């Protein structure tokens, strides 16, 4: 009783706080006169509270008040019946008075009197007999719904009631009533028994027996016991509430407490005590908490009291710095936010004290001063005091009137340690919690203390640098010597634990403390800091390696996804082509959100797509788990971890338990970046994550897809809700359904091996896409299920591996000549991901953007060496030393079955051997089992080769596919003596023993191998022709028909050509590919124009459309051969009788180009403005083949108006000539691989001077620092004849040695010294 009294006192205090909250105190929200919540410490949504699509707080308050009112009334009646007196201990109400009626406390809604409920509905009876089966007054008719018949007057109603537990209980209780009153109403009891024996004879005996059993009487509890039980239940409910998540900005608000009470009471009423769920995940179940160095996971109780409940305006006032992330840019339909620029900082133009004094309410100022006092009085493990003093010094030096340019901080200010404590003190109250501290290693920590000692002496220099940094670029060069600008990051020092910004921030995101995932500025700060750190550390560790290769492990790199694609190719070589292609594209308003996500959205008062961090993680997790488990059953993880009855499982129970019918799958998460929008639509993508997946099946017929899949809006009875979601999500915008018309029922045609889904002509016209019905019922979003030829599915999937930016831009970003600061600045300013993509890149260790069905869920990546390499990677030495593989096992098969660390048999293969009962019984050794095992996606190898038109590729292929024990076996004496070096490795493959020798002589095998790598038909034919001609030449050398020593001198190549003669050299590599692609387009266009009839024109036009006749965009640095290839194509087209229009940006350039060609009627050389008539309305220029963004799109529209028949080629370098229009062609929505084909020429033929090329790169693609400018200008002064200076002969000789002679040089009458 003492504990109950103490708890009653605690509840009384809580009642006082509730009453204060209802009066509108600062502890929580209250309902205003308009019915809208007014929350202190909460920022109103954009547009005000009235613009919110729903009012969660209002609905919650009204609902839970009604629930508590009814619960109190029921408890009062129950105690009154037992004791005969009113309950003096009732909660949340006033005891009734004998004089005045009971008055309800403030906040309770008034109960309206019940209105007219209508007439009473009685059972009509059965077979002309009146109903007498009322349980209240036996002998009279029972009451029910209008038109309803009771269970004892209808055999069907009785049978239906007995089929459900609830209905059986109602019948049993009614039967007990009739049995207890059979003395008074015997005719009713007799009629009931007769109807039971007639309608349900099998149940009559059991029901009669239950009716005769006496009803058990529960002992009545005393008034004190009831009070103690209620107090204990309330205490348990409060304990459960305290364990739940609580917002930092709103500590124990009254509506939140009342809402939790209502939820807990509702859960107690419906909870199953045998399956009680744990309120929290235990630390022992979290791998992050069990790590040797677990990251900090903040708890609500850890927040210092002065920093609790800080409103956004208080946090803004406490900041000595201003944050600039650019304007808020979202898609037109209000989706996720886009990162528009790099985050930058500047000192606030007012002091923190002035900003606090300018706050409105007195209690808000008091709370802000308390927070500031705490931050300044606790400098240990908190850098806020340091930033506060530096800000005040800045204000004093500028006499309290600093300008925005003076306040601007340099770009590398982002890496200041403990910066978060000055920007988000309510989330980072310790420096050790900060992500900027997490990036520091031991050496940087020592430098941090030394840096603080001389920081005061550098304030003036810092302000000068800040003034220069007011421009977009950052020209400071001191950071290179001080190892700044991201020189640290996750750099591993010997014997130092690994630090990770991403894992540290993820631990805070998933912590019980709210606020880390709802602030866009914090998300962008962490993302920019991570990318700045990663770029800087890789740049400093490059040691001569290209930056694009150093960054190939980052998801923003095209090389990262290229490596994933190589793993997919190996999967196809193991399993063959996939059978299913499936797309899942969630839509946030209808997608099912987890309870924790809805809980946080309600606490933070945000709507969907405005809590991007949690939404992206939740949606990605659901999509990947749907593919892996619901559809594929866990992939190769069959057994304890695999599903048995998933959608793609075998429906034969005997086979279902033994083997997984889905032998493999592959999924990738992408983002809607607007690549499918029309060229006239200006908005960027919505940023929504979606997934594409491929599935491999053992037996298509056994999956019964005709029962679980649909391609129609007619889903049958009981599927109205699913059909409604399908109608809203499955209609294709272009009206293309991808399914043939089949008006009959869905079926699988075994003879043809083809699935036919019910798909009417109406469905085909509407473009209804295929879907899985259970997935539509659960996730309620768009799907695209396709079942077609395997190679078509593979090609369709590989086309999704297009980067969100062109490879050209990425190569320019990753310039090896740029400084650290310039490199980081360029990427962070020009790279514009959206919130979901930023989140999943930061949390990629847990929420990966791709998934294989392998044993470990990943792939093994290797860069294949050539046998002639002096230093071979470790896996080659492991293979040669290994003793468990047989002599016929190639290196590729060894990599699939071996352990990457030790080179022994992989662990998963050992487990397969242990589970092989037949092999164990027969005594099969592990080594024999491993060599004979057939791979089925347990492990895949992403092997990176050279280009197939490079002879080195054939050496790599030979190393991976030919068994060997020593690299000496690849040295064939006949090849080295008789064959030129350029044929070396292909000749080696041709001389090696079968089956390698016959492989490259069989075009069918080459085509099949390249088709599995999703190569286009045109490239396959190019490779087959290339290999055929090379093999023919090799055979002639080996047979003695050609002598290597008598080989004629090769034609000069671009780097050795002289003058303006462009017909006597050989095109190389990408130059040859570009020439061939342009020539093919010209040929198709000329054939189309030569059509003699409309039918022939239609036929040829269809072939042009099938051949992907897209415009070509060729880019590259100066001297890469763009103009050379173009001139070769022009001459070839003119010789074939075609017409050519050359449009150049300036009149001078057009005149110089026209001089290179003879005057011909089929050749027109003019400026772009005159050729495309940009000065005229577009409707008047559609007869012509038409660079700003508008002009680029105008040219494309004119090309479409010309039936897409001409070969349209764009050549240039976007870093050479600036455009007059700020919007350039690459800003256009049409600048994408689906519209144009991109070709980039990278090798410079004009000069081989590496120092000059590096200088050109540093000036061309990046912003050089002062140090780089000084190095460029050193010893490069202009020639001044007045001062007697002249060019140094040695300098001219060095220039001539690395540069070909220009065409205009002979006109000067000077010799060209080589």
UniProtKB/TrEMBL annotation:
Residues 214-229 have a biased composition (Basic and acidic residues). One of its GO terms (molecular function) is helicase activity. Residues 459-491 have a biased composition (Acidic residues). Gene3D superfamilies: P-loop containing nucleotide triphosphate hydrolases. Keywords: ATP-binding, Helicase, Hydrolase, Nucleotide-binding. Residues 21-48, 73-116, 207-229, 450-497 are annotated as: Disordered. The keyword Nucleotide-binding applies. Transmembrane segments: none annotated. This is ATP-dependent DNA helicase PIF1. The lineage of its organism: Eukaryota, Sar, Alveolata, Dinophyceae, Suessiales.
């Amino acid at each position: 009783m003492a504990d109950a009294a103490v708890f009653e006192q605690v509840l009384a205090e809580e009642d006082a706080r509730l009453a204060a909250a209802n009066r509108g105190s600062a502890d929580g929200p209250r309902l205003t006169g308009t019915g809208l919540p007014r929350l202190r410490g909460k920022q109103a949504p954009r547009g005000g509270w009235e613009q919110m699509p729903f009012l969660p707080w209002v609905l919650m308050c009204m609902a839970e008040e009604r629930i508590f009112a009814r619960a109190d009334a029921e408890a009062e009646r129950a105690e009154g019946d037992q004791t005969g007196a009113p309950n003096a201990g009732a909660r949340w109400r006033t005891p009734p008075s004998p004089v005045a009626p009971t008055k309800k406390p403030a906040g309770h809604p008034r109960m309206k009197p019940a209105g007219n409920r209508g007439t009473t509905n009685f059972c009509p009876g059965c077979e002309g007999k009146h109903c007498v089966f009322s349980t209240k007054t036996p002998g009279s008719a029972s009451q029910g719904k209008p038109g309803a018949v009771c269970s004892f007057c209808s055999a069907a109603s009785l049978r239906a009631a007995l089929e459900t537990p609830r209905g059986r209980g109602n019948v049993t209780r009614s039967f007990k009533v009739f049995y207890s009153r059979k003395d008074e109403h015997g005719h009713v009891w007799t009629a009931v028994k007769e109807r039971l024996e007639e309608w349900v004879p099998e149940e009559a005996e059991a029901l009669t027996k239950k009716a005769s059993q006496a009803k058990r009487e529960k002992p009545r509890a005393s008034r004190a016991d009831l009070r103690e039980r209620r107090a204990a239940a309330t205490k348990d409910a409060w304990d459960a509430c305290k364990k739940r998540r609580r917002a930092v900005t709103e500590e124990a608000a009254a509506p939140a407490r009342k809402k939790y009470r209502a939820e807990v009471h509702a859960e107690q009423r419906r909870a199953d005590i045998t399956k009680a769920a744990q309120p929290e995940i235990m630390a022992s179940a979290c791998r992050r908490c069990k790590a040797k160095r677990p990251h900090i996971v903040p708890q609500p109780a850890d927040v210092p009291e002065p920093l609790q409940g800080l409103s956004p305006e208080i946090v803004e006032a406490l900041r000595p710095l201003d944050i600039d992330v650019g304007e808020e840019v979202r898609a037109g339909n209000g989706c996720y936010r886009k990162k528009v620029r790099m985050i930058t900082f500047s000192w606030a133009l007012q002091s923190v004290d002035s900003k606090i004094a300018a706050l409105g309410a007195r209690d808000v100022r008091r709370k802000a001063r308390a927070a500031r006092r705490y931050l300044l009085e606790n400098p240990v493990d908190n850098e806020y005091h340091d930033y506060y003093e530096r800000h005040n010094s800045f204000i004093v030096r500028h006499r309290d009137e600093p300008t925005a340019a003076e306040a601007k901080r340099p770009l590398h200010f982002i890496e200041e340690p403990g910066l978060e404590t000055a920007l988000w003190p309510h989330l980072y109250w310790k420096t050790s919690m900060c992500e900027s501290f997490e990036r520091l290693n031991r050496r940087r920590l020592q430098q941090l203390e030394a840096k603080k000692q001389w920081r005061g002496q550098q304030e003036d220099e810092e302000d000068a640098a800040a003034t220069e940094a007011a421009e977009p670029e950052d020209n400071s060069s001191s950071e290179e010597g001080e190892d700044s600008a991201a020189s640290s990051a996750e750099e591993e020092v010997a014997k130092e634990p690994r630090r990770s910004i991403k894992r540290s921030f993820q631990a805070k995101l998933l912590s019980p403390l709210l606020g880390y995932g709802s602030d866009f500025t914090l998300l962008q700060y962490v993302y920019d800091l991570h990318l700045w750190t990663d770029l800087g550390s890789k740049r400093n560790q490059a040691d001569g390696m290209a930056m694009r290769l150093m960054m190939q492990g980052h998801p923003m790199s095209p090389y990262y996804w290229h490596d994933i694609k190589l793993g997919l190719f190996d999967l196809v070589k193991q399993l063959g082509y996939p059978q299913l292609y499936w797309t899942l594209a969630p839509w946030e308003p209808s997608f099912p959100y987890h309870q924790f996500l809805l809980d946080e959205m309600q606490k933070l008062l945000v709507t969907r797509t405005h809590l991007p961090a949690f939404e992206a993680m939740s949606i990605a997790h659901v999509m990947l788990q749907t593919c892996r488990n619901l559809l594929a059953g866990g992939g190769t993880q069959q057994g304890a971890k695999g599903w048995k009855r998933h959608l793609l499982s075998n429906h034969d129970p005997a086979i279902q338990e033994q083997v997984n019918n889905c032998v493999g799958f592959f999924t990738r998460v992408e983002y809607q970046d607007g690549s499918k929008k029309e060229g006239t639509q200006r908005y960027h993508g919505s940023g929504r994550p979606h997934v594409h997946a491929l599935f491999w099946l053992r037996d298509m017929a056994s999956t019964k897809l005709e029962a679980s899949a649909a391609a129609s809006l007619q889903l049958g009875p009981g599927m109205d809700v699913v059909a409604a979601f399908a109608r809203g999500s499955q209609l294709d915008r272009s009206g293309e359904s991808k399914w043939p018309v089949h008006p009959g029922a869905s079926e699988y045609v075994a003879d043809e091996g083809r699935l036919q889904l019910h798909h009417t002509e109406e469905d085909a016209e509407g473009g209804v896409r295929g879907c899985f019905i259970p997935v539509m019922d659960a996730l309620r979003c768009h799907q695209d299920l396709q079942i077609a030829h395997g190679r078509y599915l593979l090609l369709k999937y590989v086309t999704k591996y297009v980067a969100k930016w062109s490879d050209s831009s990425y190569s320019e970003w990753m310039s090896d000549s740029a400084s650290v600061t310039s490199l980081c600045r360029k990427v962070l300013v020009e790279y514009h991901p959206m919130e979901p993509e930023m989140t999943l890149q930061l949390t990629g260790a847990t929420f990966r953007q791709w998934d294989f069905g392998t044993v470990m869920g990943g792939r093994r990546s290797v860069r294949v060496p050539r046998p002639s390499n002096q230093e071979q990677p470790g896996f080659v030495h492991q293979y040669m030393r290994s003793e468990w593989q047989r002599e016929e096992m190639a290196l590729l098969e060894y990599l699939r079955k071996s352990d990457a660390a030790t080179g022994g048999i992989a662990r998963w293969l050992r487990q397969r051997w242990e589970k092989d009962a037949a092999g164990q019984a027969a005594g099969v050794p592990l080594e024999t089992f491993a060599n004979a095992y057939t791979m089925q996606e347990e492990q895949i190898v992403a092997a990176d080769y050279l280009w197939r038109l490079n002879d080195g590729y054939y050496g790599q292929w030979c190393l991976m596919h030919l068994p060997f024990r020593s690299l000496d076996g690849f040295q064939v004496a006949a090849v080295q003596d008789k064959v030129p070096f350029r044929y070396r490795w292909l000749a080696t493959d041709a001389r090696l023993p079968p089956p390698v020798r016959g492989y490259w002589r069989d075009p069918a095998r080459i085509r099949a191998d390249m088709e599995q790598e999703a190569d286009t038909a045109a490239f396959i034919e190019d490779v087959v022709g290339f290999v055929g001609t090379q093999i023919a030449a090799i055979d002639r050398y080996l047979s003695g028909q050609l002598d290597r020593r008598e080989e004629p001198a090769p034609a000069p190549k671009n780097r050795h050509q002289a003058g303006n003669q462009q017909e006597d050299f050989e095109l190389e590599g990408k130059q040859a590919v570009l020439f061939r692609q342009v020539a093919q387009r010209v040929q198709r266009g000329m054939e189309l124009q030569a059509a003699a009839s409309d039918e022939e024109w239609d036929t040829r036009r269809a072939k042009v459309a099938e051949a992907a006749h897209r415009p070509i965009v060729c880019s590259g640095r100066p001297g890469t051969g763009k103009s050379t290839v173009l001139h070769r194509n022009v001459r070839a087209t003119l010789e074939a009788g075609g017409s050519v229009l050359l449009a150049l940006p300036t009149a001078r350039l057009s005149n110089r180009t026209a001089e290179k060609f003879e005057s011909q009627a089929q050749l027109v050389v003019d400026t772009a403005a005159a050729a495309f008539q940009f000065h005229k309305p577009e409707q008047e220029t559609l007869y012509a083949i038409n660079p700003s963004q508008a002009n680029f799109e105008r040219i494309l529209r004119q090309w479409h108006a010309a039936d897409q028949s001409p070969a349209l080629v764009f050549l240039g370098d976007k870093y050479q000539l600036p455009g007059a229009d700020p919007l350039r062609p690459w800003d256009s929505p049409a600048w994408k691989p689906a519209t144009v084909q991109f070709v980039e020429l990278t090798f410079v033929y004009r000069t081989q001077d590496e120092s000059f090329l590096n200088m050109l790169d540093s000036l061309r693609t990046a912003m050089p620092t002062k140090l780089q400018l000084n190095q460029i200008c050193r010893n490069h002064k202009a020639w001044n004849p007045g001062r007697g200076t002249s060019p140094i002969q040695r300098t001219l000789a060095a220039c001539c040695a690395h540069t070909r002679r220009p065409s205009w040089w002979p006109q000067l009458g000077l010799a060209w010294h080589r």
